[in-house]
């Protein structure tokens, strides 16, 4: 009787770990999935599931999570009864099932090999002992050693410590016997988004229609069914840690045309919320319309840039025609221009109809995150029919000291020629180094900043104009 009482007392005093039950949750338990995607290969996943567990300590296997999850960012909480669920331990199991690891687990054990008998033509099963799986598997069959024999290997079971999918495992203390809404959240890499824009320009380059598309690329190792999707535009800081190389998988492409994003300011960023649920399959690229705006006033600019280093050397008489005249389109992101929303960074591709009415690609450029009421400048390419040349007509060293401080006087000539069948305007930008002073100039100029002047030149059809100016420069 005393012996029975002692055993009963020991059982009462055993830790609850001995009585812990195991529960498994899959995506079938999902009530809602939400993902916030950043444009630096990062996503925040919030996975809400309805789960019922027993009272006390339980193991919860939370399956169908992203394979590129960052385990240190994982958290779990009960939305039904937060004070009745606490975390004792948290594990991330990623020793995934594959043929190599399966065979490794059976080294030194008996397995079966199914192979066709050469003489009878029938399949037979042979008992074998797996001796090694280092490179080619080595078996002992009928007291003989066989290296990588033919046939299919049959294993009796899947080892417990190998899993088919990445799984979060919690040891939880639960005081609620009813089903409850439990939310797991984590960061994952392998998911990214970017913006792309298509601008269609009218005949005289004064009006554009603009379509913006969000492209989401999901390589995170998980699918998000009927997900609530938010996008964050901005440069979110992350600590960079060493990591393994992530291969790029092929992705299917899905396009959805629906202007359904609501924009809002969020901290120092901008948040774009899709106003409906959408499914992101794993290894899928999805495009969703971000904006559509028409009749946007634009301004075409021709710009001829100089270079700072031109002034530091003597090149008297040499024609410098390597610098092309750039063609730019300028858009003001304002409400009165049918825009006025923060535009995420991306690439704008411009098209224009030819005389037959067919759209032709005329150039593209990348824009940074652009707030409303700011200006967007897009470089389309270089002018074909407008030519610029510059020549150094004079170069004098007025003084030079032991510290290599130069005082120089230089004369420059710039020739512009217009071969188009209409009038054009060219902005000539001259970045001058050091301390400088314009002594004489054939044309008016604007000092746009401490080291830059700008000439604005109008050229009629087939007209050539010349700018001459003399400048004194002190530089090191």
User: What oligomeric assembly is this protein in?
Assistant: single chain
Counting DSSP H or I runs of 4 or more residues, the number of helices is 2
Shape: elongated
Strand segment count: 33
Which class do the helix and strand fractions yield?
mainly beta
State the distance separating the first and last CA atoms: 103 Å
Runs with pLDDT <50, length 5+?
1-18, 242-253
Instruction: State the share of residues found in helices, binned by percent.
Output: under 10%
* Largest beta-sheet details: 11 strands, mixed
The pLDDT mean sits at 88
Set down the secondary structure blueprint:
Layout: H1 2-13, E1 21-25, E2 30-38, E3 42-51, E4 56-62, E5 75-78, E6 85-93, H2 99-105, E7 110-116, E8 123-132, E9 138-141, E10 144-147, E11 152-154, E12 167-174, E13 180-189, E14 191-201, E15 207-218, E16 224-233, E17 252-256, E18 261-266, E19 269-274, E20 278-280, E21 284-305, E22 319-320, E23 325-332, E24 346-353, E25 359-367, E26 375-382, E27 386-400, E28 406-418, E29 424-431, E30 435-441, E31 446-449, E32 452-459, E33 464-475
Parallel strand pairs: 1-4, 2-16, 14-24, 17-21, 21-29
Antiparallel strand pairs: 2-3, 3-13, 4-12, 5-13, 6-12, 7-8, 7-11, 8-9, 9-10, 14-15, 15-21, 16-19, 16-20, 18-19, 21-23, 22-27, 23-26, 24-25, 27-28, 28-33, 29-32, 30-33, 31-32
